[in-house]
Amino acid sequence: MISRNTDYWLCEILGWGAYTAFTLTFAVAQAGWSAGVVARYGLFWLYSIALTHGLRRIIRQRKWLELPPLRWLPRLLGGAAVVGTIQALLVVAVDAALSGSLANATALQFVLLLWLTFIGVTFLWCVLYAAIRRYRASLEMQLSLREAELRALEAQLDPHFLFNCLNSIRGMIAENPAEAQNMVTRLANILRYNLQRDRQHTMPLAREVEVVSDYLALESARFEERLRVKIEIEPGAEEVPVPTMLLQTLVENSLKHGIQPLPGGGELLVRARIRQQLLVIEVENSGHLHGSQSDGAGVGLLNARQRLRLLYGERAGLCLAGGENGRVKASVEIPVIP
Asked: Residue 321 pairs with which residues in a beta bridge?
């Protein structure tokens, strides 16, 4: 709010100041410098700011700009006419008071020219103010929609993740209660992370790796020897912020579509390094691309792409590729400097 008010007053002061300086230049060229000329235009500058500020309050209080354009435009024109009329009358009154004569101030041509000029300038002020207000409202709406979309995408990830974890724990309760208890503890750590995660939608990569390690521990209990995990994080990459649950999504996708269908299981390799101001995250697994995976159109990867787009625009990306050696690799590039 302070920033908006500051911008508004700067526009008011500089806008009317520029107009006053422009007209003062012509007045000085015709009549030369004098205390009376400076006083006239100084007062004009002050009461013009006061009048348009009062008009702004009326516009906001009566919510004119929330009406359709065909309804608020006539109101702005009417408000400009009122302000322009008051400005013209004040110019005449100040001129008469300072010169001690109404001879020049009451000339019909002079007053009419002042009146029309001030109405036009004030109406232009109104249109500019309306355009800025509507642009800001549109921008705020876009930001709100972006925030809502981002929240919705995050919400889509969490239930899916929880469902998989609970299935893993359910399978262990009867077979190995102690291990099931350990799994519950790890799941609690992950849920705590979800509740406490940064509201800016990002976390340092090191924190993401901790959570993924808990997740892989849960899945290792289910896969047993069928899952072999290796994590390689180069120095410097740990502190780079990444979207929350992004690494989790990549790892979960690798397990579900890559390793789980293989009778003998497979290997999962997580790598992270910095290259040319980009954090490169790679999740590589045994398996082959098939079905909707071939173009990376799975729900998890699609959501991951959308989250990257919302947070980083075109500066980040995610690709999924299959190799000839029977491995699949998901690669993410995120700018180190947001």
From this structure: 329
